Amino acid sequence: MELINLKAEIRKGKGKGHAHFLRKNGSVPGIMYGPKTEPVMLSLSANDLTNMIRKHGSTGLFINLDLEEGQRTVMLRDYQMDTFNLNCLHVDFQEIDLNKKIVVSVPVEITGESESIKMGGVLQTIRREIDVLCRPADAPENVVIDISSLEIGDSIHIEDVSLGDDIELPHDVNYTILNIAHPTAAEEEVVEEEEDLEAETEETAETTESATE
Description:
Oligomer: single chain
Low-confidence stretches: none
CATH topology of the largest domain: RNA Polymerase Alpha Subunit, Chain A, domain 2
Structural class: alpha+beta
Distance between the termini: 23 Å
Number of domains: 2
Radius of gyration: 20 Å
CATH architecture of the largest domain: Beta Complex
Number of helices: 4
Order of helices and strands: EEHEEHEEEEHEEEEEH
CATH class of the largest domain: Mainly Beta
Shape: elongated
């Protein structure tokens, strides 16, 4: 796990007018919250935030937030971009305890070449990220899935993936991460997985709340 240093300031102003003022002057409004933390309103350098996301991505980032009162260890939980994805409009940080498990989103990395794709099969990546429950130090950078041996009709579900002894799944839904489908079956598969995703999202939200208490 890499802890990224990022400077921030506590702000007192609120509302759309103050947020607009910050953005106009090269800053991004944000908020820090946590199970034992009252929400703290922040402002950050737009350049610093953009450079961090460009260099490290936005998934599973753990940050030493450098405030005047001292450092706080947080996780980048969410951020909003403008219509053209050029400027960050708002950012959310969740304060974390490095010794407690939290729900982390981990990117999926696909490797290998499947002969079935060359024969007309369609690779459907249903999930580009998966949620895991673990201590920040145990969070993997990515989950690698090899598709070399897959044939048309084969699928990889979350229970097929080995995550390690220190990592749990925050839900019971054995959802599909990817599959190789016949072109005519592709649309039907997506509809089914959207139903599974809705059920999993509700359960993950409950698990996240209980894990951080």
